[in-house]
Design goal:
The protein has 132 residues and is mainly α. The chain has a single domain, classed as Up-down Bundle (3 helical TM bundles of succinate and fumarate reductases). Helix content is 73%, strand content 0%. The protein is built from four helices and no strands. It is elongated.
């Protein structure tokens, strides 16, 4: 029987809803690693350069920048960037270890992904306590 003549047992999906697919934790950590890198590159670096440029001028500019960064919304942005930095750093170390073939089995990969995820949140919480 030709391939075109066979009946389709199960219809194939028209599209994949990526938000409905439950990803394993190592995949989530890997996706967040890429997202945090993009966040740091697109928002973190320009914000850091703008802040340094504004504060190097005068003492009044420094005081104005401190007042701006003291606003609760600015603190939330700083906290998000701190989490992105910490997550990107820890996930990058995890990826480097896996490039050296350390922790390549499934149990170790899941465990290291959980450690990265939790440790980044705990360290970001410590930054939040320090900010407020």
């Amino acid at each position: 029987m030709a391939a075109l003549d066979r009946p389709v047992v199960k219809p194939r999906p028209v599209y994949l809803n990526l938000l409905a697919i439950r990803q394993p934790l190592p995949a989530v950590v890997s996706i967040l690693h890429r997202a945090s890198g993009a966040l740091l590159f697109l928002i973190g670096i320009p914000l850091l350069l703008w802040t340094v440029e504004r504060t190097l001028g005068t003492a009044e500019a420094w005081a104005a920048m401190r007042m701006t960064l003291g606003h609760p919304l600015a603190k939330l942005v700083l906290l998000l960037l701190a989490w992105a930095y910490l997550h990107h750093l820890l996930a990058g170390v995890r990826h480097l270890a896996m490039d050296l073939h350390w922790g390549m089995d499934l149990a170790s990969a899941r465990r290291s992904a959980a450690v990265v995820f939790v440790l980044a949140l705990v360290l970001a919480l410590a930054v939040a306590v320090r900010l407020w």
